[in-house]
Specification:
Strand order of the largest sheet: 5-6-7-8-9-10-11
Structural class: alpha/beta
CATH topology of the largest domain: TIM Barrel
Shape: globular
Bound molecules: 2-succinylbenzoate, magnesium ion
Number of strands: 16
CATH architecture of the largest domain: Alpha-Beta Barrel
Helix content: 25-40%
Radius of gyration: 20 Å
CATH class of the largest domain: Alpha Beta
């Protein structure tokens, strides 16, 4: 393949709910949609998952746009590649900016799959034909609202419930949930809101049989999580701390976590995500696919990735209708009885719905 031109669509989509974490709230998703055209006319799409503000990682919509426009797209246009794995190799001279890299890398995987007439799931080594789906429920204004949200999620068949916690809204919240639902698969995500000084408090969570606690300590820490993991029986799952296979190796060798949340954007693309999968499969480390409140293109990529065998835990990969009135793909990603079917057709298995996309496009820029 040889990339000929790229269009970046700047998109804003209203969400169906307000999503609140220890950092703040979101009720719309602003993102970049990458439309890449190969010299043979094949068009591939990638979604940049970065948010408007750098509260989750350092990247933003604007920093990604800058990286894509000034570095990544110029590096890729006109280069002949045999396989999309070569994209991350090519980008290795650029430090970090993983969500920007993943956005265009994902589009190249899409082009490759169409040209070689295979599904993205198959090209990545996927084996599952359906994936288990969990839900991430943000911080709620009241305990009643939280219990209602959980009841609704269970009624829809979600295979796992994740709730956000923060200092002041943690043990108490989990205690309340466990009083009503002693046995549901439950986990808590702290989004880096605690320090080692909170060890005794976090130990109180051990009695609630949580599947895991996600990213309790600092976003850039791997060392202190190892200290915390030794003090907890609840498995720690790392999210924000993991940007590469090298980070995964460090975390596993230090004992910083027992589970890894893999996000394609955070680790710089599908190739690195697959490499992390392969390493974790070899070392018997459980992994699952995280979410960034993606629209349809990013969601389709998450579904394909989750079809790989070591994704043994349900991911944050809800169906389109959980987030959007109308997603930008057709068909929509649909969850039925806690599962999403993995498309086996050529490419990502969903078509971009241009009519819907047009409603949400703010601007478009062309690069040749
Ligand atoms: O910490 O996993 C996280 C959403 C935005 C930013 C960070 C996180 C999340 C989620 C997943 O919890 C939400 C989803 O995509 O359903
Ligand atoms: Mg998280």
């Amino acid at each position: 393949m040889k990339l000929q031109s790229v269009r970046i669509h700047h998109v804003k989509m209203p969400m169906k709910f307000t999503f609140t974490t220890s950092f703040g709230s979101m009720n719309e998703k602003e993102f970049l949609l990458i439309e890449a055209t190969d010299e043979d006319g094949t068009v591939g799409y990638g979604e940049c998952v970065a948010f408007v503000a750098p509260w989750y990682t350092e990247e933003t919509v604007k920093t990604c746009w800058h990286m894509l426009e000034d570095f990544l797209i110029p590096m890729l246009i006109g280069k002949t590649l045999q396989h999309p794995d070569e994209v991350s190799e090519l980008f290795s001279s650029i430090r970090m900016n993983n969500m920007a890299k993943a956005a265009i890398e994902g589009a190249m995987w899409d082009i490759y799959c169409q040209q070689t007439k295979q599904s993205l799931s198959h090209a990545l080594g996927g084996t599952r034909t359906a994936i288990d789906v969990g839900i991430a429920i943000g911080l709620q204004p009241t305990k009643e609202a939280l219990l209602t949200a959980i009841a609704q999620a269970l009624a829809k068949g979600y295979a796992r419930i994740k709730v956000k916690i923060k200092p002041g809204a943690d043990v108490d919240i989990i205690h309340t949930i466990r009083e009503v639902y002693p046995d549901i698969p439950l986990m808590a995500d702290a989004n880096a809101a605690y320090t080692l000084e909170d060890t005794a408090l976090l130990q109180q969570l051990d009695r609630y049989n949580l599947l895991m606690i996600e990213q309790p300590l600092a976003y850039d820490d791997i060392v202190e999580h190892a200290t915390l993991q030794r003090a907890l029986s609840t498995p720690i799952c790392l999210d924000e701390s993991i940007h590469s296979l090298a980070d995964v190796k460090r975390a596993i060798s230090l004992g910083s976590c027992k589970i890894i949340n893999v996000k394609i954007g955070r680790v710089g693309g599908l190739t690195e995500a697959r490499n992390i999968h392969d390493y974790c499969a070899m070392h018997n480390v459980a992994i699952w696919c995280g979410g960034m409140l993606e629209a349809g293109i990013g969601r389709a990529h998450n579904v394909a990735l989750t079809s790989l065998p070591q994704f043994t835990l349900p991911g944050d990969t809800s169906g389109s209708s959980h987030y959007w009135q109308e997603d930008i793909i057709s068909p929509q990603v649909e969850m039925i009885d806690g599962q999403i079917k993995v498309p086996q057709t050529v490419g990502i298995g969903y078509e971009l719905n241009d009519k819907v996309l047009q409603k949400y496009i703010v601007s478009t820029r062309n690069y040749t």
